[in-house]
Amino acid sequence: MSRPDRGTRAMHQALPSALRDAVDDFAEHLSRVRNRSAHTVRAYVTDLVSLLDHAVRMGCVDLAELDLSVLRSWLARQRTTGAARTSLARRAASARAFSAWAHRAGLLPADVGAALASPRAHRELPSVLRADQAAALVEAPSRQAPAQQAPAQQAPAMAPPPTDTAPVDRTLADPPHPVPPHPDLPAGPARGAAEGVEAVPLRDRVLLELLYATGVRVSEVCGLDVGDVDHGRRVIRVFGKGGRERSVPYGVPAQRALDDWLRRGRPAMVGARSGDALLLGARGGRLNPTTARQIVGAYAETAGLPRTSPHGLRHSAATHLLEGGADLRAVQELLGHSSLASTQIYTHVSVERLRAAYRQAHPRA
After folding, report:
1. Is there a single domain that holds both residue 63 and residue 111?
2. What is the distance of C-alpha 139 from the center of its chain?
3. Of residues 182, 183, 155, 186, the one with CA closest to residue 169
4. Do 161 and 69 sit in the same domain of this protein?
5. Residue 154: count of CB within 10 angstroms of its CB
6. Enclosing domain of residue 93
7. Contact by Cβ (8 Å): 129, 308
8. Of 294, 315, 336, which closes a domain?
9. CA angle at residue 85 from 82 to 91, to 5 degrees?
10. 140 lies in the same domain as 86
11. Are 289 and 254 within 8 A, CB to CB?
């Protein structure tokens, strides 16, 4: 079973053995048969353990006693404890998935979750950068590292962001200039200050370029290997949710950033733990998505832009594609959405484009 948090593990151990076995078998099914990610399996298991713990408290000692009233009571309890609509919708989906699996496996006499309704999740779209703002963000590493204006000791106190391994030792012997408080500066006996400061902006530039040029998820860009880049056709091979593979094109600026990184940046940061990873963290391992989020946010702040995340860059890329006339189904393929409905919710057309289309097409405009 994918390792949930300590509280979930304690509730799992407190369940009757038959229910524990059902949870473990369901997790195995999600991982091996449905090919769900470890994160998704962990979320489903957490929801399921909470549901079965609630069922036991209501007197269900056998899985066959689970019925629709128990599922509804569990969701109602979640709502009274302050769970958001998005959380309730996800937990209802977890209950329905488990119920359907348990019925097929002969553990439930009926698929009791099929009739379980859930509140419609309210999905807030991230803010979208203008095209000039996106350009300023991706070009920021070429101008300066985040917060380079002040030495590290003068920077506002903040918790250090996680790196791909242990916290980075930022102590460098006699640096020629103050080292900027960058979220992921390389350090170590084999890397001097000048070498690190030169390599990191190259890595940051290619990270930002790929996020905006392709609209891929942050986990997807961090999961890229060197061999996933087809320089001749200018496409990257991406493995998205559920292990689905797709090819996504990128432009000339991203190609230049890739060339600089592979020629001058990556060799300076590569180490024994690098393997085939395209983007590397401070200790030479694969760049962590959490660190990538910190990097994007730091450059946006330094450039005076609205608070931005990799997801915001993904949304901006999709929006700019649609505003440029791209077909919705082409954007769906680029983003890796399994259904067009996801793309329709995720993207939007600006008011300016609607007005322009109206003026151009409507006879009474």
Report:
1. yes
2. 22
3. 186
4. no
5. 10
6. 6-115
7. yes
8. 315
9. 90
10. no
11. no
**Which positions are catalytic?**
217, 241, 311, 314, 337, 346
**Cβ–Cβ under 8 Å, residues 344 and 328:** yes
Q: What is the CA radius of gyration of the chain?
A: 24
Q: For the chain, what's the residue count? A: 365
Q: Confirm whether 292 is domain-assigned.
A: yes
pLDDT in tens, 314-354: 988 888 888 888 878 888 888 887 777 666 665 565 555 66
Model confidence at 237, in pLDDT bands (50, 70, 90)?
Answer: very high
Contact 333, 324 (CB under 8 A): no
How many Cβ atoms from other residues are within 10 Å of residue 267's Cβ?
10
Looking at the structure of the chain, the number of domains it has is 2
C-alpha distances in Å from residue 312, one per residue of 120, 218, 230, 348: 23, 11, 26, 13
The single-letter DSSP state of residue 305 is: P
pLDDT greater at residue 329 or residue 288 = 288
Residues 296, 189 share a domain: yes
- 205 and 290 belong to one structural domain: yes
Give the pairing of strands 245-249 and 235-239: antiparallel
Q: CA of 10: how far to CAs of 45, 57, 84, in Å? A: 13, 15, 24
Helices in the chain by DSSP H: which ranges? Answer: 6-14, 17-28, 38-57, 68-80, 85-104, 131-143, 193-214, 218-222, 252-260, 266-269, 289-302, 310-323, 328-335, 340-346, 351-361
